[in-house]
Write a structure and sequence with these properties.
By secondary structure, the chain is of the alpha+beta class. It contains nine helices and 18 strands. The strands form three sheets. Strands 1, 2, 3, 4, 5, 6, 7, 8, 9, 10, 11, 12 and 13 form a 13-stranded mixed β-sheet that branches. The chain has a three-stranded mixed β-sheet with strand order 15-18-17, covered by helices on one side. Strands 14-16 form a two-stranded antiparallel sheet. A hairpin with a 4-residue loop joins strand 6 and strand 7. Helix 3 packs across helix 5. The longest helix has 17 residues. It is globular, with a radius of gyration of 24 Å. It starts with a helix and ends with a strand.
Length: about 325
């Protein structure tokens, strides 16, 4: 017998993000375990009623379900719709049907993009960033930053908290402005607040409140730190100005690729962890930045075609 609490967890998770192949297979097996699935569907309404009765018998005690049945809770509604979608499509193929649809916005490399959201919020994407937001965003204000960097200027709405998810963190706000850096190539994610406050959580021990000019640098549930920061400097990239404080050479390489379009290669792997603080403008040539690195870290560089090669003894 499949653990029904785990099944409830999977269905709730599916409403927020894609399931892993193993999780999808588990949920598919649960649906197929329902006895006496209907072979003919007279109408979506009758199927909905029959599906509800099955889920009612399996997941919750009957007395509680009678009290909650109309109006149904949000989680139970998602479960019912998900199960109905599955049964409607089962005759064609045994696949799971997503409840929500998401709009995907990708900012081209070496560009910046501003998005005006239905709730009045504004989002800036840095080059190469990928943002997804729920088709019902005006009601639930949920979005996902699956790659890159973005700045959020959130319209106040106490009734509908604004939520941003990365691969490891959840940021919850009512109305504020903050920057999120979540590159897949880097081990760390960073949330920096320019105004107002945000709550940052993960699936473990991290539960941090950040206020203006504070940030969190997050590697894992056991490795994160809250510290002072300059909000306006962090998000100055929106204007083509870069104030990069205490960043690794690996992160700087990503910035150079974003701004100038070069691929950066480390001939000396030890250079990746060297920490630097730099200020420069995208209007300046890349050679000026490289000359600063040469002065600070004694880095040697070579530019050939569309590639920058960095060499040095490390830090």
């Amino acid at each position: 017998m499949l653990n029904e609490k785990y099944i409830q967890y999977l269905i709730k998770k599916q409403q927020q993000e894609p399931l892993s192949p193993e999780e999808a297979e588990t949920l598919d097996a649960w649906y197929q375990s329902l006895e006496d699935l209907p072979t003919e569907i007279s109408s979506p309404a009758s199927l909905r009623e029959e599906t509800w009765q099955r889920l009612e018998r399996r997941i919750r005690p009957k007395p509680l379900m009678r009290r909650l049945r109309w109006p149904i809770s949000a989680a139970a509604a998602g479960l019912l719709l998900f199960g109905t979608g599955y049964l409607l499509n089962r005759a064609a193929k045994p696949a799971l049907t997503a409840v929500h649809s998401w709009t995907v916005v990708e900012c081209p490399p070496h560009k910046r993009m501003k998005i005006s959201m239905p709730d009045g919020s504004a989002i800036w994407l840095n080059g190469g960033a990928r943002l997804e937001y729920d088709a019902e965003f005006a009601q639930n204000r949920q979005c996902r930053l699956t790659e890159g960097e973005a700045f959020f200027d959130v319209a106040p709405d106490a009734m509908h908290p604004f939520t941003v998810r990365t691969s490891r963190l959840i940021v919850k706000v009512l109305g504020t402005s903050f920057n999120v850096s979540a590159y897949k190539r880097l081990q760390k994610e960073k949330i920096t607040v320019s105004g107002g406050s945000v709550q940052v959580l993960d699936s473990g021990a991290c539960n941090v409140t950040l206020r203006a000019n504070e940030e969190i640098v997050y590697s894992s549930a056991s490795d994160f730190a809250k510290r002072a920061a300059s909000g306006w400097q962090t998000d100055s990239w929106r204007n083509g100005e870069f104030y990069l404080a205490n960043i690794s050479m690996e992160e700087l390489a990503i910035r150079l690729e974003q701004i100038y379009g070069y691929k950066v290669v480390f001939a000396s792997k030890g250079l990746k962890n060297c920490v630097n603080s730099l200020r420069f403008s995208e209007r300046e040539p890349v050679t000026k930045v490289l000359e600063l690195l040469k002065l600070i870290n004694k880095v040697e560089y070579q530019i050939k075609d569309n590639e920058i090669t960095l060499r040095g003894s490390g830090c």
